[in-house]
Amino acid sequence: DLLQWPHISKCRSPEMETFSCYWTDGNFYNLTAPRTIQLLYMKSIDEDWKDCPDYITSGENSCYFNSSYTSIWVSYCVQLASKNEVFDEKCFNVEEIVLPDPPVHINWTLLNTSHTGLHADIQVRWDPPPTADVRKGWITLEYELQYKEVNETKWKELKPRVSTMVPLYSLKTGRDYEIRLRSRQRTSEKFGEFSEILYVSFSESDSECVHCTEEIGFPWFLVVTFGACGLAVTVILVVLSKQPRLKMLIFPPVPVPKIKGIDPDLLKKGKLDEVNSILASHGDYKTKLYNDDLWVEFIELDIEDPDEKNRISDTDRLLSDDHLKSHSCLGAKDDDSGRASCCEPDIPETDFSVSDTCDAISDSDQFRKATEKEEDLLCLDRKDDDESLASLANTDTQHQPVNTQSENIQLWPPFADSIDSPRPSVHTHISNQNSLTNADFYAQVSDITPAGRVVLSPGQKSKVGRAQREGCREQNFTMDNTYFCEADVKKCIAVTSHEEDEPHIQEQSCNEDAYFTTESLTTTGVNLGASTAETPSAEMPVPDYTSIHIVHSPQGLVLNATALPVPDKEFNMSCGYVSTDQLNKIMP
Amino acid sequence: MSAKGASLKGLLLGILLVSNMLLTKEGVTSLPICPNGSINCQVSLEELFDRAVKLSHYIHSLSSDMFNEFDERYAQGRGFIAKAVNGCHTSSLTTPEDKEQAQQIHHEDLLNLVLGVLRSWNDPLIHLASEVQRIKEAPETILWKAVEIEEQNKRLLEGMEKIVGRLNFGENGNEIYSQWEGLPSLQLADEDSRLFAFYNLLHCLRRDSHKIDNYLKLLKCRLIHDNNC
Prior knowledge:
The complex is a heterodimer.
Chain A: E1 7-12, E2 19-24, E3 37-43, E4 50-51, E5 62-65, E6 75-82, E7 85-93, E8 104-113, E9 119-127, E10 141-149, E11 156-157, E12 165-172, E13 177-185, E14 198-200, H1 220-240, H2 244-250, H3 264-269, H4 272-281, H5 284-289, H6 294-300, H7 314-319, H8 339-342, H9 349-354, H10 361-373, H11 402-411, H12 413-418, E15 444-448, E16 454-457, H13 466-474, E17 484-485, H14 486-497, H15 503-512, H16 518-522, E18 548-552, E19 556-559, E20 577-578, H17 580-586
Antiparallel strand pairs in A: 1-2, 2-5, 3-4, 3-6, 6-7, 8-9, 9-12, 10-11, 10-13, 13-14, 15-16, 17-20, 18-19
Helix pairs in contact in A: 13-14
Chain B: H1 2-26, H2 45-75, H3 99-104, H4 107-131, H5 140-166, H6 183-186, H7 191-223
Helix pairs in contact in B: 2-5, 2-7, 4-5, 4-7
Protein name (chain A): Growth hormone receptor
GO cellular component, one term (chain A): external side of plasma membrane
Keywords (chain A): Cell membrane, Disulfide bond, Endocytosis, Glycoprotein, Membrane, Phosphoprotein, Receptor, Secreted, Signal, Transmembrane, Transmembrane helix
């Protein structure tokens, strides 16, 4: 057998005036000397342990402290000891160990019965335990009632309450009930012992209905069965019925996503290019997506798409208001789109692939391809011919190199047709640029491809002399396939050109070279200045572009004949890019 | 955005309703029978005692819960037996310690004692509320209970002063008060000693709140219901 030490099982006060402590013997002393267990106690203010005042009143193995020994709100320690051996010790305050006696005089009365006589309400009453002095308010009690049918196992509990009566509703008159109560001090959590069980049974007189039958429970089983059957039958009928309307009513078709004109298969196969193009034909597509970042807009469109269907004429396309940026030169606008950073001539190609604002990775490849194929908008055309001087003829200027311009004029049929005014001189000026980075962004449109793209041509490359080319070589055109601003090239060209034999013509031709950016065509009515006979110098590149004054979009252009020597601040950034290859072709 | 605003409003309303419900459940709503500023209206003494008893009961249940939570959380395994023989700072006040003594004492003296104990606890409660926040990982329930007890204690003190005023007796010359010196112990560096100090303080608080609750119930039954509660 396990050795069990004597220990204090509990200490309890029923009414907060006395208390008792109980202990167990354990099997320790069965074998040895008679029991000499003692209970010693000590109040907090005492200094030594005292013996229990009453071993008898509370029964065996107990110690009873009457009211004279009991002080509330004072801490006690009790000790179970034998001679010199301490078995157990406990410390407490008396108000913490209050477990009241159960209530007494429990009875019940009938409140009323239901019409059917099958149910009844009763009122249960009781008195507080006699030991607890509730009347003077020394102790406040709470009561809990529990009841159940006689043959049930689980008790139903009511909420603890202070009042000494409680109604019980809707008891079945045909059954017998058991009721029991217990109490606790209101400020504590532990209940005292249960009272004796009260039996409730209803006599025949209690239930008025004599002929009432035994109540049947609601036939849930039947309801469920029939309901399920009915539902199944209905569903089968609906499904089998040929009536599409009914079927649609109950099983409506789930709509699949559809975009007009797009074959879902396209999306599946991942041909985004085609999807893009289809979407592009819906005018709003681009503007919504790329409203703020025109730079991105330029880049992300597939320039090379040969399948693009053009139902709009070239003119309209160029002059129309919507942003068909795919055909525009990467002309710099005077807004803060990220293009500016890409206009740096020093930017190596790799930067394009990493820069968010300037390029998409996939598109940088396209750019490269484009330049090589000479279909690139961005670059000056490499046609080294007299067409570089092409511009719209001037009627009012002193420069009349009509011959040289004739070819170019032919290249501009759309514009010629649409221009209202007599062919004004299209002069531009290159803004006062001394560095490679400052350049204007005009390029001469030398051709318009059937696809609707504008091909830009450089200026005066035919007139560039060798010496100057070499001089130009000294410039920083060492990187392959990089983009340079046109102005730099122009400047180079201009520098070389003005040392030619015919500077006059050069100037003229410079001046007469004209180019537009589609963008400037479509967006700005920029007051561009055309330069007159500016003396070309090394520092001041010859302005060989004219500019558009007003765009009577979409039908007309008015070109500015006046020359502004002041560089236009708006056009600080270069727009055109020349690849090194092209540049090298310019300068052999 | 409007839907969001509406849902926020609904949530706020819900919180208000629930909190109101909880407060009424605790029995600490002080629905004023006399609105503020009215001169002729007088709350009955019975009503005053009712409120005082409700408050004292609430305070005791709060401090009891707080002690139990603290005991569970920090005292287990540390051997903080409820020896608490260190005594409480209010032990110096001579208060009745059993029913006979409580019945014999005059209600004025008893009321003054109640006031004295309440005043003596004003200071410790303030510090308890602030110091308990410095306990490492103190549960939120303990924190807000400390604050709540401190608040309710003030309200109970005000109520008791009103009752005393209503009963038309002033306090004696020597005002009952016990100074609390325990603040340094709550700020000890050693965590064990500090927690033991808290344990003691909470134990004393539980005891004293029970004492006050009992005295007030006694007084209520004696004065209002004529010993026939």
